[in-house]
Amino acid sequence: DAAQTEARRADAVREFLTTMLSDAGPRAGRTRDLTVRDALDKAAAKLDAGSMKDDPEIEEAIRWSLASAYIALGNRAAASAAQFEWIVSFREKKFGPRTTEVADALYWWGSELNADGKRDRAESVTRELTGKYHIGADRLKAHGVSSLAPVGSNDTEDGKQKNRRVELVKQ
């Protein structure tokens, strides 16, 4: 039944992630500190080598967890791309190429990449204000939110351009 399948999937993901983190400890014979990125890379390599090939649904859930962790570390474009490419490919094979399951994965991935661009624009303005104009960095916070607070329609180039903006908000 669905509840048992979901419970089995959650247990398998938990076990995989627990093993991933325990491999980073001193009991695993580590002579140096292992970063979270190192642990994620090692886990991704394990998946790429086929450690979960017999259970692709569980592998998909683990890859979602890895992609989320890479994103949380700020490694959206490179590291998470491999996970999302696998997820999209898996979903295309399982559900078909033009399905909501595939669209959901592509949308989520696109949203994350888009967030990077917004954040990069906001951070570049912050760097300019602190470097060139000597405004204290403690007085500034960079956020990318154009899709959450549009001032123009994204159906036209003019509207898109208006949404690529920087606003200074007095606190």
Short description:
The chain is mainly α and 171 residues long. It contains six helices and no strands.
Please, could you describe this protein's structure?
By secondary structure, the chain is an all-alpha fold. Helices cover 63% and strands 0% of the residues. α2 runs antiparallel to α3 (56-72) and α4 (79-95) packs antiparallel against α5. The protein is flat, with a radius of gyration of 20 Å. The mean pLDDT is 80.
Descriptive terms for the model:
mainly alpha; 171 residues; 6 helices; flat
Share of residues in strands: under 5%
Number of helical segments with 4 or more residues: 6
Q: Largest sheet, if any?
A: none
Which outline best applies? flat
Distance between the termini: 53 Å
Task: Tell me roughly what share of residues is in helical segments.
Answer: 55-70%
Instruction: Classify the oligomer.
Output: single chain
- Class computed from helices, strands and strand pairing: mainly alpha
SSE topology string: HHHHHH
Report the C-alpha radius of gyration, rounded.
Answer: 20 Å
Output mean pLDDT: 80
Poorly predicted runs of 5 or more residues: none
DSSP strand count = 0
